[in-house]
Every structure is written in structure tokens, then in C-alpha cells.
Design brief:
InterPro entries: FAD/NAD-bd_sf (IPR036188), HdrA-like (IPR039650)
Mean pLDDT: 94
Number of helices: 13
Radius of gyration: 23 Å
Low-confidence stretches: 1-15, 17-25, 534-538
Protein name: FAD-dependent oxidoreductase
Signal peptide: 1-25
Strand content: 15-25%
Structural class: alpha+beta
Shape: globular
Largest sheet: 7 strands, mixed
Keywords: 4Fe-4S, Iron, Iron-sulfur, Metal-binding, Oxidoreductase, Signal
Number of strands: 20
GO molecular function, one term: metal ion binding
Helix content: 25-40%
Length: 538
């Protein structure tokens, strides 16, 4: 076991080091609630259960807390900030206090540097007395023991066995879910599966699309790299594709803190031949030189940093290379993560060095670089691959498009969502006319909607002591809105309280008293309704 400490977070790490189980312990560890995955949802699950007095252990496969919130995604996808309450809002208020702006009345108040967010998560767990164990990845095979529709224990790769009354899978991968025997899926349902107009293959999507007909073939009649030969299936048909993953980049324009983009091992500019062609045609079609924002979307963070996200038709999303990830082996997942990182490194090196890139665009990008004071144990590249969507449980209730648009009230509400139905492209294909098209983008506004408790519970006849706040029970369309980190934290808090209630009463997670769960969430500041919605009546 190892704990990575920053100078600014030394006290937090000292606190955590006192409550982390020794790696040499081999006897089974018995707890009320076991949380798997130190994501933001995992932190909130562990924190909320411990605050109720439950004995909690948090197993994190890696060596850092916070998942994407501390691993590159610093520009929080808020939607309507009014729906964010409870411990999620407490977290954002605390990071804002670090910068002397705790009111959260501006969007910029919700943004922070990765190391500040990680220190804040660590402090919260230390205050609650949560036992945190790093380097505790679930054994890939036979890692979950089940008796009578209940998980008895999980075993980490080093052979340690962990027992608990209730288990909460807060990982992005859903590996505990997958080994538990509960039903899960991944990919896109067809439009017919749940009667969703936004489901399946999407043929007309103007966003993040090539703005003019771009030929998919080179002069030698071969496809450019990064294009699938197709054909594009019928609109609305389902498949096993997932929206593209990427690395959310945290870069700095402070010369004293800036490192240049290195040339990655195995770099081949030919991988970006389609991008080169796009750059060469840009001025004639757009009437101006390309700019940085045509390819990356920066959002300013404190201390001369910014979060850079995908933008445009060819950007940091590694389109067409994520579909194998959700149900892959550990080894294949590592390979896919490595390939995504190399693509990202190659893209930045190409845009900042290649002769085909217009000088103004190069100059705009080369103002930025890797921050010396972030991600010191990963060569200053973000640690987390942005798994926008992986496995999804098929549980007691499947949230679908209707639950976001027309059936927005829920009797067992545990929080609210408000972000757009937002899916990134899933593939880049050649069309019958020889042009290239990105497919899969979805950007459809929603009104604030209630999230039901049942979204986290498996079917009772399958499993009775597992909660799943991240790889939750939703269609691809609904998940594209629910997948935002504030909602993960909201769900994580509810899972922690629910898990604690189930552990102390000895009932299945499906049978806990919903009214009591809601009362405890409201007492902790959770938002289950908005005045203009009046879902709960006057």
C-alpha cells in the first residue's frame, strides 16, 4: 500500500495513513458497508455511511481519490446548479473556500485544480473516520463470493478478503457489478427497445461534425486513418458502441509551471492525415484561419490553468476506439487506456509541431503545456481515462428518455438531474458518397428531473445487498444525462445512507424505508425537488 502526499495535503495523507489497513493483513475484514472505487461517488458513499455511524471500508484499485474530478475533469458539468445539494455541494463549497469564494454564486466558483479537489476528498474521509485502502483492485476472476443472493465477501488481487453487510460499486468499470451476477449491459439500445426517439444510430447530428463534405479517401484510394469502412447501420438501430472516451487535459499557460508537450514514443504523424487534410481545407471553406477552439475547448481554472475538452470533428475524443472497453479483461483495459493516452499525446504534438498546422494555431497551443504541479506520478498527464459510459446495470427500474422528458417525477426520489442528454460521437464512418461522417452525438436539453432510488438497486431476485450509483440502471439515452460527476456524488450520498440503513436493519437494499432515506437526505441538505417543479406537492 502506498499513499501519495503533496505538501499541501500532507495532513490529509497523515490522517489517511492512520486509518488504512496494513497490506500484510490476511484475515477477513468485516464491515457494515464496503465501497469499491474511490471515485467522487465512492467518496460520498463512504462519507455518508460513516457519518451515520456505520463501519466503512473504501477499496480503491489505484492510488488516488476522486476519479475524474481529480483526474482531469475539473470543469464541472453542472447543468442547473440548484439541483446540486447535500454532500456534493459541501464538497464544492469546500474547494471554493480554498480560493476564498465559498458562495458558489458564479460558475467559476465551482471550478478547482485537481490537487485541491483530491485534498478535499481526503480531508472529508479522514474527518468521517473512513478506512481507505489503496491498491486494492478486485481479483479479476472469482473475486466475489455470493450466497443466497447476497454478496458475502470480495477478494482483492493480493488475496485479502473483505466482508460486509452491504456492498456499493462506485467504480466506472462496474467490475464488482459484473462479478456479482446481476444483469448488466453496455452499448446503445435500439429505438424500439424502450420507445426512445433518441436511441440507437443517429444519422443527422450537426455538432462536432465536419462542416463541409470531406473525402474519406486519400489520393491512393485508401481510407484515411481513424475512419471505419462502415456501412452506417439504419437509423435507430442498436449496437455495442459506446460514446468516445478521452483524456480531459489540465494544462497551464504559466511559464514558470509549464512543461512542453513531449514527442511520444512511436509517434507517427500519418495517424493524423485526416486532420491534416481538414486543416488544409479549413481556410477556403470557413474564410478564416483555424483557431485553438476549433479543436479543443478550454475552460479556465484557478492559477493559470485550464481544463481542455474535446471540440470539433477531430479532437481529443479517440472516436471508434472505446467500444471494446466496458467488458474487456484487465489486460485489455490497460492496453486501451494506453492507446488513448498515446493518441492524446500524439494529437498535441502534431498540433504543436507539424508543418501542416497553420502558424497561428501552433502559437495558440504552444502557450500551453503540462503543469509541473499536477499528476506528478503520471508524467503530468491526467491519470484517469474519461470512461463516459461503460457497463450499465439492468436493475429494478431502468431510467429511459421518458424519465428525463415526460415522466420526471418519482416517488422514491433521492436526487435530481438536469444536464442535457449528452453523448459524444461513437464512430467515424465513410458514407456511400465517399465522404466521412462522425456518428453518435446527442445534445438535447432536459428540464430538472427526479432520480429514483431504484436506479441503484439490482432486481431483488438476483441480488439483495449491492448498490450501484455509477454503472446504474439506465438506457444509453438516459445515462448520457445521468453520467455527470455531481449526479454521481448525489447518488453516492444516497447509496451510503441506504447501505447504512440496510446494514443496521438486516433487510435487502430493495426494502429499506424510502421515506426515512429521503428524510435523512433532506436533513443533510440534499435537493429532491425544486419549487418550480413541485413534484412533492405544495
Amino acid at each position: 500500500m502506498s499513499i501519495h502526499c503533496r505538501t499541501s495535503g500532507l495532513l490529509v495523507c497523515l490522517i489517511l495513513s492512520l486509518i488504512v489497513s496494513p497490506a500484510s493483513a490476511q484475515s477477513p475484514v468485516n464491515k457494515d458497508v464496503l465501497v469499491y472505487g474511490g471515485t467522487a461517488a465512492g467518496v460520498m458513499s463512504a462519507y455518508s455511511a460513516a457519518r451515520r455511524g456505520s463501519h466503512v471500508v473504501l477499496l480503491e484499485p489505484g492510488h488516488h481519490l476522486g476519479g475524474m474530478v481529480t483526474g482531469g475533469l475539473s470543469a464541472t458539468d453542472l447543468g442547473n446548479p440548484q439541483v446540486i445539494g447535500g454532500y456534493a455541494k459541501l464538497f464544492y463549497r469546500r474547494v471554493a473556500e480554498h480560493y476564498g469564494r465559498s458562495r458558489l454564486d458564479r460558475i467559476t466558483d465551482w471550478l478547482s485544480e485537481p490537487h485541491v479537489s483530491e485534498d478535499t476528498f481526503g480531508a472529508m474521509l479522514g474527518e468521517a473516520g473512513v478506512e481507505v485502502v489503496f491498491g486494492a483492485r478486485l481479483r479479476e476472476r472469482h473475486g466475489v463470493t455470493i450466497e443466497n443472493r447476497r454478496i458475502v465477501s470480495v477478494t482483492s488481487e493480493d488475496g485479502r478478503e473483505w466482508r460486509a453487510e452491504v456492498f456499493v460499486d462506485c467504480s466506472y468499470e462496474g467490475d464488482l457489478l459484473a462479478q456479482s451476477g446481476a444483469t448488466y449491459t453496455w452499448g446503445r439500445e435500439s429505438a424500439q427497445t424502450y420507445g426512445e426517439t433518441l436511441a440507437g444510430v443517429r444519422t443527422i447530428t450537426p455538432q462536432h461534425q465536419f462542416g463541409w463534405p470531406m473525402l474519406a479517401y486519400r489520393d491512393d484510394h485508401r481510407l484515411y486513418p481513424e475512419i471505419s469502412p462502415g456501412p452506417l447501420p439504419t437509423a435507430g438501430s442498436g449496437d455495442k458502441n459506446v460514446q468516445a472516451y478521452n483524456y480531459r487535459l489540465v494544462l497551464t499557460d504559466d511559464p514558470a509551471n509549464r512543461l512542453p508537450f513531449p514527442k511520444p514514443d512511436g509517434y507517427d504523424p500519418a495517424q493524423f492525415a485526416l486532420l491534416a487534410r481538414y486543416l488544409q481545407e479549413f481556410q477556403s471553406h470557413m474564410g478564416r484561419d483555424p483557431s485553438l477552439r476549433d479543436f479543443l475547448y478550454p475552460v479556465r481554472l484557478p492559477n493559470h490553468k485550464a481544463d481542455f475538452n474535446n471540440n470539433g470533428p477531430f479532437s481529443s475524443d479517440y472516436i471508434g476506439h472505446s467500444a471494446a472497453y466496458p467488458d474487456a479483461s484487465y489486460q485489455d483495459k490497460l492496453r486501451i487506456r494506453t492507446e488513448h493516452l498515446r493518441y492524446t499525446q500524439g494529437l498535441l504534438y502534431f498540433l504543436s509541431h507539424d508543418p501542416v498546422v497553420p502558424a497561428p494555431l501552433k502559437s495558440q497551443l504552444n502557450v500551453w503545456g503540462l503543469p509541473k504541479d499536477e499528476f506528478s506520478d503520471s508524467d503530468h498527464w491526467p491519470r484517469e481515462l474519461y470512461i463516459r459510459e461503460g457497463r450499465r446495470m439492468v436493475g429494478a427500474y431502468v431510467v429511459t428518455q421518458a424519465d428525463l422528458q415526460t415522466n420526471r417525477a418519482k416517488p422514491d426520489a433521492i436526487g435530481m438531474g438536469s444536464y442535457n442528454s449528452d453523448s459524444h460521437n461513437v464512430q467515424r464512418v465513410v458514407m456511400p458518397d465517399g465522404t466521412v461522417r462522425n456518428e453518435g452525438d446527442m445534445q438535447v436539453p432536459v428540464q430538472p428531473y427526479q432520480i429514483p432510488y431504484r436506479v441503484m438497486t439490482p432486481r431483488k431476485d438476483e441480488l439483495q445487498n449491492l448498490l450501484v450509483p455509477v454503472c446504474l440502471s439506465a438506457s444509453h439515452v438516459a445515462y448520457s444525462s445521468l453520467r455527470m460527476e455531481p449526479q454521481y456524488m448525489i447518488l453516492g450520498q444516497a447509496a451510503g445512507v441506504a447501505g447504512s440503513l440496510a446494514a443496521e436493519s438486516g433487510v435487502p437494499v430493495q426494502d429499506i424505508p424510502i421515506a426515512r432515506l429521503q428524510r435523512e437526505l433532506l436533513k443533510a441538505g440534499a435537493v429532491l425537488d425544486l419549487p418550480e417543479n413541485s413534484f412533492f406537492g405544495p
